[in-house]
Specification:
By secondary structure, the chain is of the alpha/beta class. It is built from six helices and seven strands. The N and C termini lie far apart (53 Å).
């Protein structure tokens, strides 16, 4: 005789990482806050990890500031992430072409977690060609991050080719439009 028990489905914790979240209000930060709401509804436990700014807005409850080495956007390394991530976690890395995301990807991998890259359009040809990278180090590092991701979240199907121009081996995509509230007519 078998008994049926109600078992809760266990979801991984989903975190969002955007170092500039508190200092650079934009469409990216707005989208991250909407994705956070969806993540919280799914898992009950989700926050945005960000750098503690010298100037900028105060951290609301859904933003957890973590320790970073460096002096700003171009040099931040999120060493505080190592204390936060567990092996069952998923960390969504927002944007691209920044050292902080590369370091975050490495730290998540070291902790045996998974990460998803959500580039918010930064692999568009004009942006890629505008990168100063005379010997290709940035491009190789960015390609490693894309290849190592559990998936790359793009907003439309045509963006897959844009990402594959940087990292042709990437095959795992999530195609979902940008996080935004549903409008009522």
């Amino acid at each position: 005789m078998s008994s049926t028990r109600n078992q809760e489905v266990s979801h991984p914790r989903i975190f969002h990482y955007y170092a500039r979240h508190l200092v650079h209000p934009s469409g990216v930060t707005d989208a991250i806050e909407h994705w956070l709401s969806a993540s919280q509804a799914l898992t009950g436990e989700s926050v945005i990890f960000a750098a503690r700014p010298k100037y900028g807005r105060e951290a609301p409850p859904e933003v957890r500031t973590i320790r970073h080495l460096g002096w700003g956007r171009k040099t931040w390394i999120p060493i505080g992430l190592m204390r936060e991530v567990r092996s069952s976690d998923i960390v969504v890395l927002h944007e691209g072409w920044v050292l902080s995301n590369l370091a975050a990807a490495l730290f998540v991998r070291l902790r045996k977690g998974r990460f998803v890259v959500m580039p918010h359009g930064v692999y568009e040809r004009g942006i890629v060609e505008g990168q100063r990278d005379p010997i290709g180090i940035r491009r190789r590092a960015e390609a490693w991050m894309l290849r190592s991701a559990a998936a790359v979240h793009v907003f439309y199907r045509g963006e897959e080719a844009v990402v594959q121009a940087v990292a042709p081996e990437v095959k795992d995509f999530i195609v979902v439009p940008n996080g935004a509230p549903v409008s009522n007519p």
